[in-house]
Amino acid sequence: MAAMRYRLTFVAGLVLGYVLGTRAGRERYEQLKKSARQVAQNPAVRNTAETAAHQGREIAGKALHAVGAKVGDHMPDSVADRVRSLRERGTNGSGPDDWGTSDS
């Protein structure tokens, strides 16, 4: 019974959001888009995002090393080759990653 109530509440929220969204219209959408662009171009926001991305790469590298040490030879060759290429890219620091960003 609680699951049904949750579903009905969720659907009602979607319908309400759609109705309010369509009433806001294109003008409000453009205002929101402009505001989001201004926030994204703020130097403090950009620095925070870059710092978070850098920390994420560091943590991912540590996790990769820890998993690689524990898994060892149990990895399929295709995965081991990919890990090697990522390690090589990480040590020389050149080239963009899979998302088109740089490691620097």
Structure, explained:
With 104 residues, this protein is mainly alpha-helical. Helix content is 82%, strand content 0%. It has three helices and no strands. The longest helix is centred in the N-terminal third of the chain and has 40 residues, at 2-41. The chain is flat. The chain starts with a helix and ends in a 12-residue tail after the last helix. The mean pLDDT is 77.
Helix and strand layout, with pairings?
Layout: H1 2-41, H2 43-71, H3 77-92
First and last CA, distance? 53 Å
* Strand/helix succession: HHH
Give the radius of gyration: 22 Å
Q: What is the overall silhouette?
A: flat
Structural class: mainly alpha
Could you give the count of β-strands?
A: 0
List the total number of helices: 3
- Report the helical percentage: over 70%
Q: Main sheet, how many strands, which sense, barrel? A: none
Contiguous uncertain segments of 5+ residues: none
**What integer is the average pLDDT?**
77
* Binned strand content: under 5%
TL;DR of this structure?
By secondary structure, this protein is mainly α.
